[in-house]
Amino acid sequence: MINQYYRTIVFIIFTSMIATGQNEEKIEKKIDSILSQLTLKEKVAMCHAQSKFSTPGVPRLGIPELWMSDGPHGVRAEINWDDWGYANWTNDSITAFPALTCLASTFNPNLAKAYGVSVGEEARYRKKDVLLGPGVNIYRTPLNGRNFEYMGEDPYLASKLVVPYIQGVQKNGVAACVKHYVLNNQEKWRDHINVEVSDRALHEIYLPAFKASVQEAKVWSIMSAYNKFRDQYCSHNELLINKILKTDWGFDGAVITDWGAAHDTYEAAMYGLDIEMGTGTDGLGVTTANHYDYYFLASPFLKLLKSGNVEEAVVNDKVRRILRLMYRTSMNPNRSFGRMNNKEHHDVARKVATEGIVLLKNENQCFPIADTADITIAVIGENATRSLTKGGGSSELKPKFEISPLEGLKKRFKNAKIIHAMGYASGPSAYDKVLPSEWDADSLKKEAINVAKEANLVLFFGGLNKSHLQDCEGDDRRAFELPFGQGALLQDIAAVNNNIGMILLTGNAVDMPWIDQVNGLIQGWYLGTMGGAALADVISGDVNPSGKLPFSFPAKLKDNAAHYFGELSYPGDGVNQYYKEDILVGYRWHDTKKIPPLFAFGEGLSYTSFDLSNFKIDKKSYSNGEQITVSGEVSNTGEVSGAEVIQVYIGKQKSKVKRALKELKGFKKVVVENGMTASVNIVVDVNSLAFYDADIADWNLEKGKYVMHIGNASNRISQTIKFEIK
Ligand code: BGC
């Protein structure tokens, strides 16, 4: 019976593989035929924008336009044809999903899939063919204004989450466009800075999530970064695009520039760029009839082709990739219609948010808070009511609704008394300037102190926001500390009420000189539509927190590896920058150099406690191509059920090259009822232990002794196991 079942499954998989293969073959033939009918001019037209977010089709042959939208946390509101203004439609309000840092903190690939499916459905409903996201640039410095859009500092974690996200989006016949390829790890000088980094760090740290997007998720498009790498712009970088992406990884989709990231016609033609977007940020230039004709891949490209200096095969390859992208999206007759703002999407958004919220400190059982009539909670801080889906740059969203923390708490806490004061105020969100606040800081402070005096407990909702120089595209934060006078305000509040629970809404680590003055600390990210409800879920204990930090929080800025090496390392000298920390990014640096962070990668508390025990591996030694099966038990020794993330790190003793003490190679999130024990199995690919050997330009699996570290945070290792690679 079982045999028959498996035979049937194998048959179905095999025949569907053949069918997919046949289908692909058929499409390639159709593309051949289209290519033979297109004029040179029509081909070139397909390689560049016709508006802010679309490229033209070929009406003569029934080829439709290609429509794109940002990404990655929801589908951006409709933008005008030729300028950055919003079109002010009344039917483009969407579900805002939590920021990708929050998704990364869930350590839950199933949720990444659900997130991808849902945001893809919304993109489809909005008639988009390409969703500009997700972003997987590695978290290198806490000052990067765009970290909130990415998946943290670890290439393995980012890879494990980006793959299901992409698969989910693309299930809808909407292409994901993974961005920004690559080394766009800061916003400051992003449009021109030249990044110098070793081959090892490039391949081991910065490329893996892109590689997984291409090879495992089969992403259909990729967005090139603004910056340069080794003196060549990433949008037409021979090594990054032609060699690594298209040749070594076999990427068969289209490379799309970031908006305005192309700089040269010959290079764009020859070094792999397929679609040019956004050049000349005002769309139609004032001096020309149709600015789009002056794009590098427009008239100048046509001229180059006609002159014979660039062969027609070059444009044919680009158009083939664009048509492939279209057959998968705009020309796919079988895609669903999608849906938007439905309950399922809100549920996914809330689930991602609750699982991604990270509890970092919980003294005197600050959290969860009981909803009893004898307590008064003072909710203080601008972020308790401010919209955090507004601003931030291109990831800005127009949600149908957004539950603020104050609303969420008021809805959940029916017995406790909730009082509120804004406490501090920043100005309105703006993309490229800091706007002053209209509020009087002293009166706000006075009011907050009075409110704090009346309460048993203060919940301070602070952090950053989506304004220029905060968590916002276009530039970096100028300071590591909390802005808008929050530090001083906290001191004053602590003087009248020493029971403070701090909730940080940020996409970045911040300086915490005040950490000893708060009993509780929650890292609450940017949570979107359901944010306030999700925070109330965790604060009330309806949901037991299980999020883990996807990046390290250094105790001081200098403790972060990029900053340790001074200005040439970050932000560079305005022309070049050198990633001097090399492969030692994030916890790899803190661990190896024995510089403990304030909060470590993988760290996150729960309302219960877990014991990890009896972890073992299936053999003593392994060889190339094998898998290591790690198994053990997790016991929930506390009072409530919860989920724990078991993390497997591996390090090489006595290596011939520099190594991090340990690197994440496997993880699993397990739900365990209180009083129960669950078994866990985690599989690690032996080949993932190889280092990138620049001498042979390939991966090198060193033989010898390795150490596995198993724990529930990079700084909480409960067991180590030695093994060998032969
Ligand atoms: C951003 C991209 C975004 C594009 C279109 C650029 O400024 O870097 O991430 O997709 O604009 O809005």
Summarize it:
The chain is of the alpha/beta class and 726 residues long. The chain is 29% helix and 20% strand.
Structure description:
The protein is built from 18 helices and 26 strands. The protein is of the alpha/beta class. It starts with a helix and ends with a strand. The strands form 6 sheets. Strands 1-2-3-4-6-9 form a 6-stranded mixed beta sheet. The structure holds beta-D-glucopyranose. Beta-D-glucopyranose (BGC) is lined by residues 70-71, 132, 179, 258-259, 394. Beta-D-glucopyranose binds at residues 70-71, 132, 179, 258-259, 394.
Low-confidence stretches: 8-17
Percentage of residues in DSSP E strands:
15-25%
Structural class: alpha/beta
* Radius of gyration (Å): 26 Å
Distance between the termini: 40 Å
Percent range for helical residues?
25-40%
Number of helices: 18
Describe how the helices and strands are arranged:
Elements: H1 2-37, H2 40-45, E1 54-55, E2 66-70, H3 100-106, H4 109-125, E3 130-132, H5 155-170, E4 175-181, E5 194-196, H6 199-206, H7 208-215, E6 221-224, E7 228-229, E8 232-233, H8 238-248, E9 254-256, H9 265-270, H10 299-307, H11 312-328, H12 343-356, E10 358-362, E11 376-380, H13 405-412, E12 417-421, H14 441-454, E13 457-463, H15 486-496, E14 500-505, E15 520-523, H16 531-540, H17 561-564, E16 576-578, H18 587-592, E17 610-617, E18 621-622, E19 627-636, E20 642-652, E21 663-672, E22 677-685, E23 691-693, E24 698-700, E25 704-713, E26 716-725
Parallel strand pairs: 2-3, 3-4, 4-6, 5-7, 5-16, 6-9, 11-12, 11-13, 13-14, 14-15, 18-26
Antiparallel strand pairs: 1-2, 7-8, 10-15, 17-19, 19-22, 20-21, 20-25, 23-24, 25-26
The structure holds beta-D-glucopyranose (BGC).
